[in-house]
Automatic annotation (TrEMBL), chain A:
Pfam families: Hydrolase_6, Hydrolase_like
Catalytic activity field: diphosphate + H2O = 2 phosphate + H(+)
Protein name (record): Phospholysine phosphohistidine inorganic pyrophosphate phosphatase
Taxonomic lineage: Eukaryota, Metazoa, Ecdysozoa, Nematoda, Chromadorea
E.C. numbers: 3.6.1.1
Automatic annotation (TrEMBL), chain B:
Family (UniProt): Belongs to the HAD-like hydrolase superfamily.
UniProt keywords, alphabetically: Magnesium, Metal-binding
One MF term in the entry's GO annotations: metal ion binding
NCBIfam families with a match to the protein in the record: HAD-SF-IIA (TIGR01460), HAD-SF-IIA-hyp3 (TIGR01458)
Ranges in coiled-coil conformation: none
Record's protein name: Haloacid dehalogenase-like hydrolase domain-containing protein 2
One annotated Gene Ontology cellular component of this protein: cytoplasm
Matching CDD domains: HAD_PPase
Entry cofactors: Mg(2+)
Length: 267, 267
């Protein structure tokens, strides 16, 4: 497969649909992925787990993955909230937060009096007219209204049904204020680049593995990475001839990708 | 303009015949003159998603207008008409005060979503419910798509952003029923004909009077009607230049009624 035609020194791994499937409680681990992650952690490859999860801090996410059987360091998790925090830091911004209470700690360092931007994540129950209106009133008062979103999904599946994701509510505020939001998360190319930079590697020596052909594979390819599709999670058979995205490799699951890669690196 | 039979006169409310609780000077008498004219049929047309027809009616009566309840046609009447014509069972995202306009409509096992300005309904759980219906094929009907409105404590989000959120997440377009949609003007005319059952009134035998260049005047012209812009209410200098079709722009409803009387006399 051509994704192995160049040396690989680092991997970006999607979490949901690659390591585990969501469901009741913590969800269910994809059994072969537990062993695969173990082998990767023992190799000299660098890894980041790249997710759009915006309702948990990295600490809580690492703990949850630990309960599912994965040994993952908090520092190996790359999620939108800390990436947004570093963007805010670089630009001297004071955020107003419309995020899930579980992720607020990632923004503890910021002065939130007199905010000059809005950061929005999947706030779940916090998505009320009152909270959206507060964010709106703040944005339209600004000379340059800036809305920063943690991911931009339309909806996702929970055990009790489909839920609107942050992208839908971001769209609402974009329409009200006539602005575009800055998306921090997949499939944004800068988000993948930042994850690669976090490993101190180059785009050229890194491969992304995910289950979402548009967001994971298409997004990674736009950033110049090789993208490998797994046939787990939200994968659909008709994606094998996808009209927009052709993956650099397709594997049954994470374990197959890891087998191929480690065999190649050993040779 | 030449007139064959009867003339339908559609008249905007706020800014055209009254402002808040005061009549526009001469408006009460001007409406009386129209009513006395045997060749005129009237409808009072307005975009509202908060006030029921009952409320609008009692407000107009208090001001001193001789207007019957059935002569008022609102964007909610249009939504109701659409629901009835297509035999839909809507989930109603409306405030309680607006619900009376939908009395008698079957809302069990919904296959449509009607959305107006309803802050008390715009929270995650209820939005998710609406989202799932639309994703499953329910028709999305928006009373209107205003971005925001002036409220007592500053600007506040209108229904538009919430409609936009549902449209984005479900990849659909809402059917908007208020002014300036052509369908609104045609339905208002239809409601007149239902009453005057013997008589067909075509769009060219209808004239719209309003203070809003876009929603009232351009909308009616685009629907094939005649229109008169009045320089009261929200009218701002030069508004007539934003209209394609060169309709008369007159000082107030009083001059508009004079104009219509001359029109009838000359035909
Ligand atoms: Mg995934
Ligand atoms: Mg008006």
């Amino acid at each position: 497969m051509n994704w192995l035609s160049k040396p690989v020194r680092g991997l970006l791994l999607d979490i949901t649909g690659v390591l585990y499937n969501s469901g009741e409680g913590d969800g269910v681990a994809i059994a072969s992925s537990i062993e695969a992650v173990k082998r990767l952690q023992a190799s000299d490859l660098k890894i980041r787990f790249v997710s759009n999860e915006s309702s948990n801090t990295r600490a809580k996410l690492a703990a949850k993955l630990g309960r599912l059987g994965f040994e993952i360091q908090e520092e190996q998790l790359f999620t939108p909230a800390p990436a947004a925090a570093s963007y805010l830091r670089q630009h001297g911004l004071r955020p107003h937060l419309l995020v899930h209470p579980g992720v607020q700690d990632e923004f503890a360092e910021f002065d939130m009096t007199d905010p000059n931007c809005v950061v929005m994540g999947d706030a779940e129950r916090e998505f009320t007219y009152q909270n959206l209106n507060t964010a709106f009133q703040l944005l339209i008062k600004l000379d340059r209204p800036q809305l920063i979103t943690l991911g931009y999904g339309k909806y996702y599946m929970e055990t009790d049904g489909l839920k609107l994701d942050v992208g839908a509510y971001a769209k609402a505020l974009e329409y009200a204020c006539d602005i575009q939001s800055l998306v921090i998360g997949k499939p944004n190319a800068e988000y993948f680049s930042a994850a690669v930079a976090d490993m101190q590697l180059t785009i050229d020596e890194t491969v992304m593995i995910g289950d979402d052909i548009l967001s994971d594979i298409g997004g990674a390819q736009k950033a110049g990475l090789r993208g490998v599709q797994v046939r787990t999670g939200k994968w659909r058979p008709q994606w094998e001839n996808h009209p927009i995205v052709t993956p650099d490799g397709i594997v049954d699951n994470l374990a197959e990708a890891v087998n191929l890669l480690l065999a190649q690196n050993a040779a | 303009m030449t007139l064959k039979k009867k003339l339908a006169v559609l008249i905007d409310l706020s800014g055209t015949i009254h402002i808040e609780d005061c009549a526009i000077k001469g408006a009460i008498e001007a409406i009386g003159r129209l009513r006395a004219n045997p060749r005129v049929r009237m409808r009072f047309v307005t975009n509202t998603t908060k006030e029921s027809i009952g409320r609008l009616h009692s407000r107009l009566q208090k001001i001193g207008f001789d207007i019957a309840k059935h002569e008022i046609f609102t964007s909610m009447s249009a939504a109701r008409r659409l629901v009835e014509n297509e035999r839909l069972r809507p989930m109603l995202l409306l405030e309680d005060v607006a619900l009376e306009d939908f009395e008698g409509i079957d809302t069990t096992n919904p296959n449509a979503v009607v959305i107006g300005l309803a802050p008390s309904q715009f929270y995650a759980e209820r939005m998710n419910e609406a989202f799932r219906l639309v994703l499953d094929g329910a028709k999305l009907i928006a009373i209107h798509k205003a971005r925001y409105f002036k409220s007592a404590d500053g600007m506040a989000l209108g229904p538009g952003p919430f409609v936009q959120a549902l449209e984005f997440a479900t990849d659909t377009k809402a059917t908007v029923v208020g002014k300036p949609e052509s369908a609104f003007f045609h339905m208002a005319l239809q409601s007149l004909m239902d009453e005057e059952s013997a008589e067909e009134i075509s769009a060219e035998d209808a004239v719209m009077i309003g203070d809003d260049a876009r929603d009232d005047v351009q909308g009616a012209l685009d629907a094939g009607m005649k229109a008169i812009l009045v320089k009261t209410g929200k009218y701002r200098d030069g508004d007539e230049r934003k209209i394609t079709g060169d309709p008369p722009a007159l000082d107030s409803i009083v001059d508009a009624v004079d104009y219509i009387e001359r029109l009838i006399d000359n035909s």
